TrEMBL record:
Pfam families: BPD_transp_1. The lineage of its organism: Bacteria, Pseudomonadati, Pseudomonadota, Alphaproteobacteria, Hyphomicrobiales. Keywords: Amino-acid transport, Cell membrane, Membrane, Transmembrane, Transmembrane helix, Transport. The keyword Membrane applies. SUPFAM superfamilies: MetI-like. Part of the binding-protein-dependent transport system for glutamine; probably responsible for the translocation of the substrate across the membrane. It is a multi-pass membrane protein. Residues 45-255 form the ABC transmembrane type-1 domain. This is Amino acid ABC transporter permease. Belongs to the binding-protein-dependent transport system permease family. HisMQ subfamily.
């Protein structure tokens, strides 16, 4: 059917968003109030980035492991992987965050102390207390566990999308299972995996705001503190939304550029 191709279509939405972002930046710079709000809220950017990057990296590693378990030849491993994915995906991230922070962390501390009691009695280790496990790391672990289930399904679908004939050809060449995965399967699967994996990364940036319920000083928490003290709710949460939009839209554009680059390399 007729109509311009996607390559020929000018990204008016991006141009509009860029102009609005520039106008907002100039307005923030010209207003003492908004500049003060921005300076306060921006202190949480580092924590937001840290939580997002660390949680996503660990979730990707765990997710890949769960995906490989789900594709293994062992029925037990497949059942364990499916159990993990279905149970974790069935729990809301916020509920998982509370559970890890206030139930999982104390249980971990109790188990650790029980396992290391001989070393503690001998004076080699001190007793671990619940307060020694920071709320920041409890939040990171909750996001890691929550997103690993979703990411595992992304990896599983990408790996299964690779043509069976290429895997059989690699077997015929005498490549081991590890070599087949590293040299044949994964390089092709990554092109299928990257778009949904990028979507999960952007979603994690937004869901990282949930760590504020534990008092972790991210962007949202810094905004809550400033708004509670100044009663400038409109200004504060407008700045919070602005910063998150800059982060998420910027990441989305970077990921799209990476996808196009990979696609061009594959076509060449």
């Amino acid at each position: 059917m007729g109509g311009p191709s996607p390559k020929a279509e000018f990204p008016w939405w991006l141009a509009t968003a860029a102009v609005l972002a520039l106008v907002a930046a100039l307005f923030i710079a010209a207003s003492d109030l908004y500049a003060q709000v921005f300076a306060t809220v921006a202190k949480g950017i580092g924590i937001t980035v840290f939580v997002t990057v660390v949680a996503f990296a660990m979730a990707s590693i765990i997710g890949l492991g769960v995906a490989l378990m789900g594709l293994s030849g062992s029925s037990w491993l497949r059942q364990i992987a499916r159990f993990y994915v279905e149970i974790i995906r069935g729990v809301p991230i916020l509920v998982l965050l509370f559970w890890i922070a206030f139930a999982g962390a104390p249980a971990f501390v109790a188990a650790w102390n029980a396992l290391t009691s001989p070393l503690q009695n001998a004076g080699y280790l001190g007793e671990l207390l619940v307060r020694d496990v920071s709320l920041l790391w409890r939040a990171v672990m909750a996001l890691t566990i929550g997103y690993s289930a979703f990411i595992s399904e992304v990896f599983r679908a990408g790996i299964q999308a690779v043509e069976k004939g290429q895997i059989e050809a690699a077997k015929a060449l005498g490549l081991s299972r590890t070599q087949r995965f590293r040299l044949i399967v994964f390089p092709q699967a990554i092109r299928t995996i990257l778009p949904p994996l990028g979507n999960d990364f952007v979603a994690l940036v937004k869901d990282s705001s949930l760590v504020s319920v534990l008092g972790v000083a991210d962007i949202t928490q810094m905004g809550k503190i400033y708004a509670a003290g100044s009663f400038r709710f409109f200004e504060t949460y407008s700045i919070v939304a602005y910063i998150y939009l800059i982060l998420t839209v910027g990441l989305s554009l970077a990921l799209r550029a990476l996808e196009r680059r990979l696609r061009h390399q594959h076509e060449e």
